[in-house]
Write a structure and sequence with these properties.
By secondary structure, the protein is mainly α. It has 3 helices and no strands. Keywords: Membrane, Transmembrane, Transmembrane helix.
């Protein structure tokens, strides 16, 4: 199972670097609240991708024929929960929400870029040995 998660260290390191940069950039913009929003945005994306990766690997190992419906259901549930959470946070009037939203977008691009970087450099055979 862990052999299917070799991409995670690259993406997690890229996300950690982004976390440091985002918090550092957000601090002068809006003090601690903006920095907390930046950290929350990175954490949300990392959590989302970790859940997705683990679900894909688990379902692939247990019941490959259910991979598409389970993964699509997982994505739908994740986005519904994230939307509800963001709505509730917006209702509180929290000042870090805008920075959090921007950081979610940037963290998604960084994670996807890190996965692409890993894929392009992975020594993956095209056929089963």
């Amino acid at each position: 199972m862990t052999q299917r998660l070799h991409h995670l260290p690259t993406a997690l390191v890229a996300s950690a670097v982004l976390l440091v940069v985002a918090v550092g950039v957000a601090w002068p913009i809006g003090d601690g609240t903006a920095s907390l929003g930046a950290a929350a945005g990175v954490a949300l994306v990392v959590l989302s991708y970790l859940v997705s990766s683990l679900v894909v690997v688990w379902v692939d190992a247990v019941a490959r024929n259910l991979l598409l419906p389970v993964v699509l259901l997982t994505y739908a549930l994740k986005f519904a929960v994230f939307g509800l959470v963001m709505y509730r946070v917006r209702e509180t009037g929290w000042a870090g929400l805008r920075v959090m939203g921007v950081t979610v977008i940037v963290a998604t691009v960084v994670w996807t870029g890190a996965q692409l970087y890993w894929i392009l450099r992975a020594k993956t055979p095209y056929v089963e040995p």
